[in-house]
Design brief:
Blueprint lengths: L3 E8 L3 E6 L4 E6 L2 H11 L3 E8 L6 H9 L4 E4 L14 H10 L4
Parallel strand pairs: 1-4, 4-5
Antiparallel strand pairs: 1-2, 2-3
Length: about 100
C-alpha cells in the first residue's frame, strides 16, 4: 500500500508554489493550464489524499477546478483561519516561509 500524500499550494495571480509532504518536494509553477498539467504529472505516481490551497480572490479557481476534475480531493481555505485547520502540520508554514522569504534551493 502506498503512503498517502498531502499537498499544500500557495496560489498567486501568475504562479503557484507546491509542497508535497511525503517527498518534501517544492515546485514553483505558472498559474496556467500548462502549469497545472505539470503539477498533475508530478502527482500522478503518488497516492494523494488531500490538496489544500488558499482562497486567493479568483486566482485559485482554475487550479482547484482542474485538480478536482482530475479526481483529487481539494480543500480551498482562508489562510487566516488555516491554523485552526492544522495547516502547519501539512507543511503550509514551511511552504509560506519558502515562497515569501526566499526561493527554494
Amino acid at each position: 500500500m502506498k503512503e498517502t500524500t498531502t499537498v499544500g499550494i500557495d496560489v498567486s495571480k501568475d504562479s503557484f508554489d507546491v509542497h508535497i509532504d511525503t517527498t518534501s518536494q517544492f515546485l514553483h509553477l505558472e498559474n496556467t493550464p500548462t502549469g497545472i498539467q505539470l503539477l498533475l504529472k508530478a502527482l500522478k505516481e503518488l497516492s494523494v489524499s488531500l490538496v489544500v490551497m488558499e482562497a486567493t480572490s479568483k486566482y485559485h479557481y482554475l487550479l482547484a477546478s482542474m485538480l478536482t476534475e482530475a479526481g483529487l480531493t481539494v480543500a480551498v481555505v482562508n489562510v487566516t483561519n488555516g491554523a485552526k485547520l492544522g495547516l502547519p502540520q501539512l507543511g503550509w508554514s514551511c511552504l509560506s516561509q519558502r515562497t515569501h522569504d526566499s526561493p527554494p534551493q
